[in-house]
Amino acid sequence: MEGNTSDPATLEAMIEIFRVKTFNSARKALVVMDADIATEDNWKMVKEKGYDYLFVTRSTMKNHKVEAHAATVTVTDNKKQKIELYRVK
User: Fold this and answer.
1) What local confidence, expressed as pLDDT, does residue 5 receive?
2) Are 69 and 45 a contacting pair, CB within 8 Å?
3) Helices H, strands E: what count in the chain?
4) Taking the CA of residue 42 as centre, how many other CA atoms within 13 Å lie in the half-sphere pointing to its CB?
5) Residue 18 in contact with residue 29, Cβ under 8 Å?
């Protein structure tokens, strides 16, 4: 990608590059976004394109529910702080 381009603005182009490279793959792609690129617009775009995704957000999620019987996974960050991960809809 060209320099001085914001990360959120490059996501769709990056996904297209990887989609072409993995088109014949038997495994479905998983889009992983950090908090800088996980904007509302990017989240909607990834969802509309039918990709599975995992992302971190700095804001509070709206209108979500923890999936029934969802397992919680606890990990620790580099500061030894616990982070709970769970699937939401």
Assistant:
1) 56
2) no
3) 2, 4
4) 24
5) yes
- Cβ neighbours of residue 56 closer than 8 Å, sequence gap 6 or more: 33, 34, 35, 38
74 - beta bridge partners?
Answer: 84
* Residues forming a β-bridge with 84: 74
**Whole-model pTM?**
0.55
> Which amino acid is it at 59?
S
2: Cβ–Cβ under 8 A, 6 or more apart, which residues? Answer: none
pLDDT along the chain (89 residues), means of 10: 59 77 67 82 86 77 78 88 82
Find all residues with CB under 8 Å of 47, minimum gap 6, and list them. 53
- Using the structure block, give the residue that is written with the tokens 């030894």: 80
Q: Say if strands 82-85 and 73-76 run parallel, antiparallel, or are unpaired.
A: antiparallel
Q: What is the pLDDT of residue 80?
A: 92
- DSSP at 59: S
